[in-house]
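Batch manifest, entry 17 of 40.
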Amino acid sequence: MGSLYEFEQRMGFREHNEVYQYEMVSEKLRNQFILLVSECVPYSEYDLWTPVTKILNIEFGEMKTNGISNKVQVIKILKMCNNVGALYCFEIVLATLEELVQYEVAESTEGAGELVEHFHYLISEVNKKFRENSLGYEYISGNLIRIDSKFIHQEVIVNAIQLLYENEFESASNEYMQAFNDYKNGNLKGSITNAGKAFESTMKIICEELNYSYKQSDNAKKLISTLMNKEFIPSYLQTHSSGLSNTLESGLPTVRNKHSHGDGVIEVEVTDKIVRYALNLCATNIVLLVEIYNEYIHHG
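Output type: structure tokens
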């Protein structure tokens, strides 16, 4: 059963034009966070909210209201604080819980293994909700980190999207945004495939506009060869572009490999790291190609 975000995309109610933002933490996401934390881990057995409340009361200068629980106090602070404060609350709750988990594991307490599983599931779900809400942060090992420390975000990814849009590379723009949204949705294989398609579409549009001979069936390697032969790609970049071709063609790293000793097919694990690499690499090279194209048409 998919999330509401996935349902909205499938039904066509959500536009595929969202890159990450860093300043707005919606009320919806704040509520989702509390619900996930409350439901994913059996906190009745563990004292999470007392240390969290102590930290947040001090940092936000709040006095605890008589008659309410520590959990309710945390919810009260999370709902009233500004966006930066909400991010701080997220980090404090998760980091405190991680310390609790580590303590239970170190003490080999009964149920520690189950608590670890719940915690890993919680982090996965929280990070997923961040992506679905286009919030550019991720919780890793005690800290919230900005996604653009992994993605070359403003300088490359956004630049690639803007260049494609401004230069009417519509099909390539749509494919790249689909790749980015596939990643946010957890469709890692689809993200890699669409990154490769966006790269190929960019080259096909360039070939079309410059009257270079090509076929719609040409893959990345063939298209790069065409651009090289026409000296569209400068000679000093040709070695790099050949390596790029080997990486991006056929949907980026091979997702399905055939056994050399049988007829079966084995699934090759596609990880977040591989997909981020694909999106970064695709954006970097789209920017390069479109900037060369712009220079070419303006200066001949």
